[in-house]
Write a structure and sequence with these properties.
With 324 residues, this protein is mainly beta. The protein is built from 2 helices and 21 strands. A hairpin with a 3-residue loop joins strand 19 and strand 20.
């Protein structure tokens, strides 16, 4: 026996492989083909029940979390930074001294140092310049401005002045999203919004927010102005401050809804030449093409207003032999 296996082991392997291929072919090709010839053409997994339910049409989008209040703090006179009284993450009150600046271009100009005041209440964060994003981590300045830094000041135009620090309100956040002209017509201020922060993990709860702004005109959304859209701003509360600035957020808004209506899954609806059909089960392994009328549709299910009844059974795939 040992000599037999040693002599014929290659043939035995070929035989086992051939047997496996024939078995697979039988179950996945020959057997289904024979079943179709006999009229056994409906897979039970392709049958669904017509039932009462809800149909929701959702708008989904994404955006980046920013602070509702983000105040740039600058010095009034231009000068050299002499003291910094806060660090990033500190909470400050409006009017609190956060730094000290000595007016002038150098130490030889004998001007009396002047305090820099917080212009709002909130959390201190550092100013980030566009060029900082392109630097390697080792080259980035991760702190507030160092003592001895020259700050360009301004009494009437803070935009031209050097940013000393920013004060943000972490309790109230915003998500900006651009939508198309078709979508913006369905979105209104005060609409409730479901918000998902993926950075908090797959099991993190959804947050509730509301639309606070719907733009009345389109604007450029790309860096080079090659695309445009309507700005939608969603506001959400962040009382425990677990949501950080700059993280991505996904939003979902219900723009239309039907409750307790007759529904079928979206993949059980078939359209042809402007008409809607479902394949209704009328007996064992028999389905009839049935014209139906529909109402509200979503990517998950469809409202049926005529042509089917509750507890009817329909197919989610075309019956064998049906051309479409």
């Amino acid at each position: 026996m040992k000599y037999f296996f040693k002599k014929h082991w290659k043939k035995l392997i070929y035989l086992l492989v051939l047997t496996g291929l024939l078995t697979i072919g039988w179950f996945y090709a020959v057997k289904p083909f024979i079943a179709k010839l006999k009229g056994e053409i409906i897979n039970p997994d392709d049958i669904v029940t017509v039932e009462k339910g809800n149909v929701e049409v959702l708008f989904t989008g994404s955006g980046t979390v920013t602070a509702k209040q983000d105040v740039k703090v600058t010095a009034k006179p231009s000068g050299i930074l002499k003291a910094v009284y806060v660090k990033e993450g500190d909470y400050v009150k409006k009017g609190q001294e956060v730094g000290l600046i000595k007016p002038g271009r150098n130490e030889f100009e004998d001007y009396k140092p002047m305090p820099i005041y917080a212009e709002a209440s909130g959390t201190v964060i550092k100013c980030v310049r566009d060029e900082d994003y392109r630097k390697n981590l080792a080259d980035k300045d991760l702190s507030l401005p160092r003592l001895g830094t020259f700050l360009e000041g301004s009494y009437d135009n803070a935009e031209k002045a050097t940013c000393f620090l920013r004060i943000v309100n972490m309790d109230s956040l915003l998500i900006s999203t651009y939508v198309t002209e078709n979508q913006v017509m369905k979105l209104k201020p005060e609409m409730s919004v479901d918000i998902t922060i993926r950075a908090l993990g797959d099991n993190a709860p959804k947050f509730k927010g509301k639309i606070s702004h719907v733009s009345s005109q389109s604007e450029a959304t790309g860096r080079w102005g090659d695309s445009s859209g309507f700005l939608i701003i969603t506001e959400l509360a962040n009382p425990d401050r677990q949501i950080l600035l700059g993280v991505s957020a996904e939003i979902s808004v219900t723009i239309d809804k039907r409750e307790d209506v007759l529904t079928i899954p979206a993949n059980a609806l078939f359209e042809k030449e402007g008409k809607n059909y479902a394949f209704k089960i009328i007996g064992k392994n028999k389905a009839k093409k049935t014209e139906i009328e529909i109402g509200l549709t979503s990517d998950k299910n469809v409202e049926v207003t005529k042509g089917l009844a509750e507890n009817d059974h329909v197919l989610t795939t075309l019956p064998y032999g049906e051309s479409w």
